[in-house]
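tool_call: predict_structure(chain=1)
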Amino acid sequence: MVLNYYYDLMSQPCRALYIFLKMTGIPYEPKEVALRKLEHMTDEYGQLNPFRKVPVIDDSGFVLTESVAILTYLCEKHKKYDWYPKELKDRARVDEYNNWQHANLRLNGSTLFLSKIIIPGMTGKPPNENELEKWRNKWEESTGHLENVWLKRSPYVAGGHITISDLLGVCEMMQPISAGYDFDAKKFPRVQEWMERVKKETQPHFDQA
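tool_result:
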């Protein structure tokens, strides 16, 4: 049976998983869930994922939520060890970044995007400038960690070649940028070069996502 992939490309993890599926050629059946139309809040979708989030996969009746779990599962099942290394220490580097990202780059960038775009769009009120400043500073702090920790020791966030961590990371970086925040390439040159490398290696799927 074909893998069913429930997603909305408005979601950063959904974009990362979309790029991964396209790059690896793993066959799947797209099942778009329109977040703007609140399709994730329906009873039907709630039965699939009680947390009412995307992405979700249904692999012949095996339903899995959470993007990192999905990516690592698919890498193991389809033996995509170039994306999720089999060697213990190399894999640990990927896991290390993925665990760091949730409470840092993803949290800060997502909240910045939420504060500037989503909440004002839902309430009809202008963004809270104090909140924007707070979360912009936190996002830049996380970007600084990318620059001075993860990308200082290797050209990709988890080693010498592209992995699922880079897909997750670059999609998170693009979220605030898409909201109109200027990215200071002079301040974060390693991050700029890394984003360009990942984009180039994942075309045309990166632009499609």
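agent: The two ends are 25 Å apart (CA to CA). Proceeding to next step.
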